[in-house]
Write a structure and sequence with these properties.
This protein has 496 residues and is of the alpha/beta class. It is built from 14 helices and 23 strands.
Length: 496
């Protein structure tokens, strides 16, 4: 086989190397997942996520990729969440022409999420351009467009769970169910050369051990190297019963009042979970029916997908659906059009579920603008809030927040209800990774803020025979051809 000339951002492997794995995102942070896997015959990207958070952080999305997209042979996608998939259209726009391998469920979700993300990029660029033109400055282009997103979808290849997929010379991948959201998977990537096979497991985002919507995550059995997420590496989630009791109490206290209850939700997973919880609380008599609006066209479309993937649903939920029970509250309406959304500004005493979950985009920012200043309003935060987002500012007790270019006073009551996370907590992560760690796998912790993955490393000491790496962006692991241990090159997070 002829030798390939190294392209920008790629490396020529040494004689004793089987592969090289470079961390280009979600290393010391919880968004922008992106890992480059190079073998002697292939270059694969695992995830290509959007960077979310502060404006400074999000500006990194527009930077040139640290490798040449046209030099990639393929992409392996763990799941469809935008922080794992949201830069795929830019990757294609910048020259990537290979296949994007993922599960059937993730492919269906991508068909909803990526065009929506392209629309958001277009609208954000339009708003910024208007402000710049008024200042006599040059216009800006969107990161990518709806058309770019649709073009990237043409490169998606759909695969079932469990079946081995040969993605290129010497590289086979299996997609295994990991809960979290519809279609989510962890990846078992086997690299074979000269009779030697070594396995890398990419956890993606690990779901809860007792999920409400989806089947329980499957656990990997063995690996030579495990990349493990650490989003909640410093804490266990509170028991679900306590969480539901708190949610019911908040909604009961606000029932009959003149203030609205705003629940920012992630359109994929969280919106459907909260609706199902509300429906079950009403059926159990723990919550009086009241008007509930789902104001997210994306979340509405995602909800429709569950009926096409019944085999992925949790057993209890499948039984409820077979009995004709609904996944939504009794007094329930959806808002698809902007006009239906704006009409909610005139309503009082209602519950509004709207995206995005971190309050940094989507329709929820309009509802926050119209309700945060109202002392009778309530905001119920039911998901993780990354640093730099409006949601994080509310969690941290901000008295004012900036929304759509306007400074808004925070007079509404802010409630943070933990326990709804679609991510595994600390002990759930340890239990999920247990069989692989017991098999002697080396471990790198990714997709976590610095203090959280440091806490998970401390909890795992004694369980892992070798070092537990906390790689920073740009660091790389050299994976030897034989049974030797991988070697980390580049910066690693220090203690604490």
């Amino acid at each position: 086989m002829p030798k390939r000339r190294p392209s920008r951002g790629f490396h020529r492997l040494e004689e004793d190397q089987l592969a090289r794995l470079t961390f280009h995102g979600a290393a010391g942070e919880v968004t922008g997942s992106c890992y480059l896997l190079e073998t002697r015959r292939m270059r694969l990207l695992i995830d290509c996520g959007l960077i979310q958070g502060s404006r400074k952080e999000e500006r990194r999305n527009a930077r040139r990729f640290p490798f040449e997209p046209a030099g990639l042979d393929g992409v392996l996608l763990t799941h469809a969440h935008i922080d794992h998939s949201g830069r795929l259209p830019k990757l294609v726009q910048d020259g990537f022409g290979g296949p994007i391998h993922t599960t059937r469920g993730s492919a269906d979700l991508l068909g909803i999420l990526l065009p929506d993300s392209g629309h958001i990029q277009e609208q954000d660029a339009l708003g910024l351009t208007r402000r710049r033109l008024r200042r006599g400055e040059k216009p800006v282009e969107p990161l990518y467009t709806v058309l770019d997103a649709r073009r990237s979808l043409e490169q998606v290849e759909r695969h079932p769970y469990h079946e081995p997929v040969e993605v290129g010379p010497g590289v086979t991948v299996r997609f295994r169910p990991v809960g979290h959201i519809l279609g989510a998977s962890f990846l078992e990537v086997d690299i074979e050369e000269g009779g030697t096979t070594r396995r890398i497991v990419f956890s993606g985002d690990v779901g809860r051990s007792q999920p409400i919507l989806l089947r329980k995550p499957q656990r990997p059995e063995r690996a030579d190297l495990l990349l493990l997420e650490s989003t909640y590496g410093d804490r266990d989630h509170r028991p679900l019963g306590e969480t539901l009791a708190e949610l019911a109490q908040i909604l009961d206290e606000t029932s009959g009042g003149k203030g609205n209850v705003i629940i920012p939700v992630f359109a994929v997973g969280r919106a459907q979970e909260i609706l199902l919880y509300l429906a079950r609380l009403e059926r159990e008599g723990r919550l009086a029916p009241r008007p509930v609006y789902l104001d997210s066209p994306m979340a509405i479309s995602v909800g429709d997908l569950y009926g096409r993937h019944l085999s992925s649903l949790a057993g209890d939920l499948r039984e409820e659906l077979a009995q004709g029970l609904e996944m939504t509250p009794r007094i329930y309406q959806t808002c698809r059009t902007p006009e239906e959304s704006m009409a909610l500004n005139e309503r009082r005493g209602i519950v509004i579920l709207a995206a995005s979950g971190m309050c940094n985009a989507g329709r929820v920012v309009h509802h926050l603008k119209h309700n945060l200043w109202h002392p009778k309003a309530h905001v119920v935060l039911v998901g993780f809030q990354a640093e730099g987002t409006v949601g994080r500012a509310l969690v941290d007790g901000a008295r004012r927040v900036r929304i759509l270019g306007e400074s808004i006073a925070v007079r509404a009551r802010i409630h943070t209800v933990g326990g709804f996370s679609a991510h595994a907590g600390k002990q759930e992560l340890i239990d999920w990774a247990g069989p692989v760690l017991d098999s002697g796998a080396r471990l790198a912790l990714v997709h976590g803020e610095r203090d959280r993955r440091a806490a998970l490393r401390a909890a795992l000491r004694g369980r892992v025979g070798g070092p537990i790496w906390l790689p920073e962006r740009g660091a790389a692991l050299r994976i030897p051809r034989t049974g030797g241990a991988p070697l980390l090159e580049g910066r690693e997070q220090g203690p604490g």
